[in-house]
Every structure is written in structure tokens, then in C-alpha cells.
Design brief:
ATP hydrolysis activity, 9 helices, Rossmann fold, single chain, 23 strands, binds adenosine-5'-triphosphate, 37% strand, 5-stranded antiparallel β-sheet, 3 domains, ABC_transporter-like_ATP-bd
Length: 365
């Protein structure tokens, strides 16, 4: 594709002779914000460091704007890549003022005063240029760090868990603000996070890592509604599986009745499949003949998550409006409302029973 800015082709990287990330492929379009999402130790930071040029690649290649940055035996130095970095711990120079921190990467630029002032304005710190980092809050320090990274006009910005030292509301607010700032300048970026909500709020494309492998690189919508693997299905949002049997390409027979979706599968009728369900696929239907017993519930504010058991013993999760108030042990009527029918072959998917009794995918090797 001709608007691809960053491309990773079959990249393997790691430390010494150990490979941490395998066969990684992704394309980031110019102006897009991508995300590397996954649980601790899955290889997100290692990938980011390889893109930055801090680690060599063992196989494959990394290209930025058509230029080959990394391949086996070739690593262009980080400072020659036109890539900016924002770190989790801000990494500001403590002995430099806010303005001097921002100007650091453009010290020799004739227009550095104007550019610095504009960037401080952009990140809402126009009045704090003379302060020192220790005189700022965490959120303000991260804005300085962002302004400093943007000053040399990088082709690509890398953000390594930039909000994880901040809490709750500030974290949410700053992440939205950073997206707006990057979009307003058309800056392309890759963000590393293990926080799904943050990935979805900030990024256009999200890559889900599982033990050193990128399982899917896609839009948040597709990851949720069209997960390509059982791992992604379980990892993104809340998902669980029930057994089913194919009846026709878009219809599956389950113990919840016949479920018909909006896409066709080529498996033979009669094949055993695992059907992905999400808590919002099972809805409260007081008059429904399909009944389940309440096992437990979690009040979420606007809604309540119920854990339910069918007469066969299968356990489900369902989100009911928060006005409903059933006690454990009570019977409730439910109905399936799943337009996106997501199926996996029963044997290959290998979902596992977890302690709470709901069948999710087990990532264990
Ligand atoms: N400098 C290093 N030398 C050797 N192994 C390392 C080094 N840094 C990381 N690793 C290993 O590489 C694997 C992936 O680590 P990485 O930091 O990329 O994970 P991550 O997904 O970013 O995790 P986290 O969210 O915890 O930061 C881990 O098993 C880790 O122990």
C-alpha cells in the first residue's frame, strides 16, 4: 500500500541469542496511531525498542517511509531514524527548564524559540516554560515530554506506556488529549500499553500480542466483532464460549437454541464448533422460555453483570440493565441477541474451563 509509513516484515527480535518476538508483520498508515497491546512480558517493549533502533532485529526488516531501518546485520542508529520517543517515566532533564527541555532536540534550529513557544501552547503549558521538571505534576511532565518529542518533527512517535504513572481520571483525560494533539499535527505514532480501554480510546489500529506473537493487527471494532483467534476473542472485551453444531453456513445449533449470524462459514453441517458469546449477546427477556439460574452478579453502575447457569450446567455471563435486581438462586428469562456469529473449530480453539466456571480461552501452552 502506498500510504504505508511504517512496515514490519516478518520481524524477529529479542536479546542476545534469545528470540522474544517472532514473525511480526504490520503496516501503519501515515497519520494513524497504532497500538501494541498485550499482557506483561509478551514482547511489546522489545518490539518498540527494535523500531526505535535500540535493539537489532534478528530476522525480517523494518522500513519507515520506504527506508530500510533494520534488517539482520543492519541497524540504522536511533538518532538517524527521525523517530521520537515518549517514556513511561517522562525522562526529562532535571537541570533544564521546561522550555529548554522542549527545545533540546532543536538546539541549533534558528527558529527554536518560536517552535518551543508553539509547542508549549499546544500542550497547554504556555505559562510554565521557566519552571523545572520537579515543579510540575506527573501529567504536566508527560506533556513536556510529548512537546520535546514533537519538536524535531519526527516521522513517527513511539510512546511506551506513557500514562501508566498517572491515575484514573487524569490518565483518561491526558490520553484523549494526546490523541487530539497527534491528530491535529498529523503525527503517526505507536503506543505500547496493556490497558485495553486506553488502546481503544487513543488508537486507530491495535495489535494484540500473545507470548511474542502478534495475533491480530486491526481496528478496535474488528478486534471486538471479528476476532481472528480464540485468544483475541477472549482477550478483547469479555468473551466466553459455548459448544455448538453447524446447521448451515450461517446457523449453529446450541443449547441456547439456534443462533443465526450475518456471516457464512464453510465447515460442513454437523461440525462441532465453539461459539463466541459476549455478555451483551445475552439479554434479559423476562417472558422467554429460556431460563437460567443466577449464580452471582457484579454491579457496574449503568448495568449489572450476571453470572448465569443453564439447566445443562453451562455457565454464561450477561449484562442486564442496572434496574434489574435478581438474587443468586433466582431463575431469569434470557434471549440470545448476537448478530456477529463468531465461530472456531471446536478442537482447534481449545477453550478451557476457568475457576469461575465460564469457558474462556486458555493461553497456556
Ligand atoms: N534486556 C533484556 N535482556 C533479556 N531479556 C529481556 C530484556 N528485556 C526484556 N526481556 C525479556 O523479554 C520478554 C519480553 O519483554 P518486554 O519488555 O518486551 O515485554 P512487555 O510486553 O513490554 O512487558 P511489560 O508490559 O511488562 O513491559 C520478557 O520475557 C523479558 O523478560
Amino acid at each position: 500500500m502506498n500510504d504505508t509509513l511504517l512496515s514490519l516484515r516478518d520481524v524477529a527480535c529479542g536479546y542476545h541469542d534469545q528470540t522474544v518476538v517472532h514473525h511480526l508483520n504490520l503496516n501503519l498508515r501515515a497519520g494513524d496511531i497504532g497500538c501494541l497491546l498485550g499482557s506483561s512480558g509478551c514482547g511489546k517493549t522489545t518490539t518498540l525498542r527494535a523500531i526505535a533502533g535500540f535493539e537489532p532485529v534478528q530476522d525480517g526488516e523494518i522500513r519507515l517511509a520506504g527506508e530500510r531501518l533494520s534488517a539482520a546485520g543492519h541497524t540504522l542508529a536511533p538518532e538517524k531514524r527521525r523517530i521520537g520517543m515518549v517514556f513511561q517515566d517522562y525522562a526529562l532533564f532535571p537541570h533544564l527548564s521546561v522550555a529548554d527541555n522542549v527545545a533540546f532536540g532543536i538546539r541549533k534550529h534558528p527558529d527554536k524559540a518560536r517552535i518551543t513557544a508553539e509547542l508549549l501552547e499546544l500542550v497547554n503549558l504556555a505559562s510554565l516554560g521557566k519552571r523545572y521538571p520537579h515543579e510540575l505534576s506527573g501529567g504536566q511532565q508527560q506533556r513536556v515530554s510529548l512537546a520535546r518529542a514533537l519538536a524535531p518533527e519526527p516521522l513517527l512517535l513511539l510512546l511506551d506506556e506513557p500514562f501508566s504513572n498517572l491515575d484514573g481520571e487524569l490518565r483518561r483525560r491526558l490520553s484523549h488529549e494526546v490523541r487530539d494533539i497527534l491528530k491535529s499535527r498529523g503525527t503517526s505514532a505507536i503506543l505500547v500499553t496493556h490497558d485495553q480501554e486506553e488502546a481503544f480510546a487513543v488508537c486507530d489500529q491495535v495489535g494484540v500480542f500473545n507470548q511474542g506473537r502478534l495475533e491480530q493487527w486491526d481496528t478496535p471494532y474488528n478486534l471486538y466483532h471479528e476476532p481472528q483467534t480464540p485468544f483475541v476473542a477472549s482477550f478483547i472485551g469479555q468473551g466466553y464460549f459455548i459448544r455448538g453444531e453447524m446447521q448451515s453456513p450461517d446457523t449453529v445449533q446450541t443449547e441456547l437454541g439456534v443462533i443465526r449470524g450475518n456471516r457464512a462459514y464453510s465447515w460442513q453441517s454437523g461440525s462441532a464448533v465453539d461459539v463466541l458469546l459476549r455478555p451483551d449477546d445475552i439479554v434479559h427477556a423476562p417472558d422467554s422460555p429460556l431460563q437460567a439460574q443466577v449464580l452471582g452478579k457484579t454491579f457496574l453502575g449503568a448495568a449489572t453483570l450476571y453470572r448465569l447457569r443453564l439447566p445443562t450446567g453451562t455457565q454464561l455471563e450477561s449484562v442486564f440493565p442496572s434496574q434489574t435486581d435478581y438474587a443468586p438462586g433466582q431463575q431469569v428469562g434470557i434471549r440470545v441477541a448476537a448478530a456477529h456469529l463468531v465461530l472456531y473449530p471446536a478442537s482447534a480453539a481449545a477453550p478451557a474451563n476457568q475457576e469461575d466456571g465460564v469457558r474462556r480461552f486458555s493461553g497456556a501452552a
